[in-house]
């Protein structure tokens, strides 16, 4: 799907609240006894440890330990079958991929990661809005058309959509819904992209997979938003 505009590395008024990437691999028990080695290698930058809580129906070994920076703006997750990295203050895909690969290579030297089961990339956006005559201003932000059956009211009070698109080897799940802050009652659109590749994955091609994931998700975002909202993101209007 072609982009309507060349994606900016980071918009001045970006709605991103979190970017995360995860790789899954066949369960590797050596993670359990070598997690301290991995932590020692990243401890200077990610010194905080968060131990997973037990959850009914979920094996503890599949829940990740989390190592976060002092500001709680970035962190790493590690379980016996998964590794992840997230940022809440996104500085662009190039820096994000560079840090993810640095951390993944540290882990790869400690436990075998030749075969991968899944590569996932996630963009979570929060887009505040103000209702217009009690109606959510969907058309002001998104270039999508939502049809309703004839005879029904056409004004949207709330919205909750989940769209899944699939190519030969990858899938993007897009979630768009209205949410409300419980503290101040402000409303916003939650726009969540969850991209995944699950075929023909090897660690040596991981960087290429991440670049593809970024291109696909950012391209979809650019095609979903209106030019009016894009101008706001660029800082061209208030």
Name the shape in a single word.
elongated
- Cα Rg: 20 Å
- Mean pLDDT reading: 89
- Detail the poorly predicted runs: 1-8
Order of helices and strands: EHEEEEHEHEEEHH
Determine the fraction of residues in helical runs and give it as a percent range.
25-40%
- Measure the end-to-end span: 29 Å
Strand pairing plus helix content: what structural class?
Answer: alpha+beta
List the total number of helices.
Answer: 5
The number of distinct β-strands equals: 9
Strand proportion: 25-35%
Main pleated sheet: 9 strands, antiparallel
Q: How are the strands ordered across the major sheet?
A: 2-3-4-5-1-6-9-8-7
Give an account of the 3D structure.
- With 238 residues, the chain is of the alpha+beta class.
- The chain is built from five helices and nine strands; from the N terminus they run E-H-E-E-E-E-H-E-H-E-E-E-H-H.
- The chain has helices spanning 30-42, 93-110, 138-141, 206-224, 227-233, and strands spanning 16-24, 48-50, 65-68, 74-79, 82-87, 118-129, 160-166, 170-180, 187-197.
- The chain has a nine-stranded antiparallel beta sheet with strand order 2-3-4-5-1-6-9-8-7, with helices on one face.
- The protein is elongated, with a radius of gyration of 20 Å.
């Amino acid at each position: 799907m072609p982009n309507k505009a060349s994606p900016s590395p980071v918009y001045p008024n970006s709605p991103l609240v979190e970017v995360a990437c995860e790789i899954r691999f066949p369960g590797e028990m050596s993670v359990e006894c070598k997690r301290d080695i991995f932590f020692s290698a990243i401890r200077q930058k990610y010194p905080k440890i968060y131990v997973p809580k037990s959850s009914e129906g979920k094996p503890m070994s599949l829940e990740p330990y989390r190592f976060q920076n002092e500001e709680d703006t970035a962190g790493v997750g590690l379980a016996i079958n998964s590794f992840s990295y997230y940022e809440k203050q996104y500085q662009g895909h190039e820096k994000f991929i560079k840090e993810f690969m640095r951390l993944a290579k540290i882990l790869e030297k400690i436990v075998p990661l030749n075969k991968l089961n899944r590569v996932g990339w996630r963009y979570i956006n929060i887009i505040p809005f103000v209702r217009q005559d009690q109606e959510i201003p969907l058309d002001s932000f998104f270039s999508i058309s939502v049809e309703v059956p004839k005879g029904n009211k056409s004004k949207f009070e709330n919205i909750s959509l989940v769209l899944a698109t699939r190519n030969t080897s990858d899938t993007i799940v897009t979630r768009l819904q209205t949410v409300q802050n419980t503290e101040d009652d402000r409303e916003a659109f939650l726009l969540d992209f969850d991209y995944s590749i699950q075929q023909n994955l090897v660690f040596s091609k991981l960087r290429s997979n991440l670049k593809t994931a970024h291109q696909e998700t950012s391209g979809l975002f650019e095609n979903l938003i209106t030019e009016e909202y894009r101008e706001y993101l660029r800082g061209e209007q208030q």
